[in-house]
Amino acid sequence: MVRDLNFLLDGLPEKGWRPGIYAVAAYRNLGIEQLYDAIQKHKNYLLQSGQWMEKRYRRREVTCISLVEDRIKRYIQRRIEEVKGFNNLMEKVKRGELDPYTGADQLTKKLIGVIANENFMQEGKDQNE
């Protein structure tokens, strides 16, 4: 099996790091040291090539954006029913009188209006304090 997998890897274009293929049987304690050494070598390669930090930066960026998206989604879910005409608009979409894309456009514009008004009102409160 190891030989077959190595043969498959031989057919791939080289990209700087070639993963090793190891026969490991943890329950018999076979190949564990080899695998550990290979993991350490790969980590060192990533550190020396700068890929370790690139991946770390990218994960942090993706995590931050994902958190913002989740917060915005939760905020919208809490506020969407406050949009004037929300129920009427949804009924039109459900009945097919309005396609979902047009409904989404209209709802988005109205929701942005609610958010903008809320922010305007909040700014007024902040200035009075």
What does this protein look like?
- This protein is mainly alpha-helical.
- 74% of the residues lie in helices and 0% in strands.
- It has three domains: 2-49, no CATH class; 50-79; 83-129.
- It has helices at 2-10, 32-49, 51-79, 86-95, 100-128.
- Helix 4 (86-95) runs antiparallel to helix 5 (100-128).
- 1% of the residues are buried.
Which terms summarize this structure?
mainly alpha, 3 domains, P-loop_NTPase
Write the layout of secondary structure elements.
Blueprint: H1 2-10, H2 32-49, H3 51-79, H4 86-95, H5 100-128
Helix pairs in contact: 4-5
Structural class: mainly alpha
Helix and strand string, N-terminal first?
A: HHHHH
Rg, alpha carbons:
27 Å
Terminal CA distance reads 73 Å
Strand content: under 5%
Q: Residue-averaged pLDDT, rounded?
A: 87
Helical content class: over 70%
Query: How many structurally independent domains?
Result: 3
Shape: elongated
As residue ranges, the low-confidence spans are none
Structure summary, number of beta strands: 0
Give a short synopsis of this structure:
The chain is an all-alpha fold. It contains 5 helices and no strands. It holds the Pfam family MeaB.
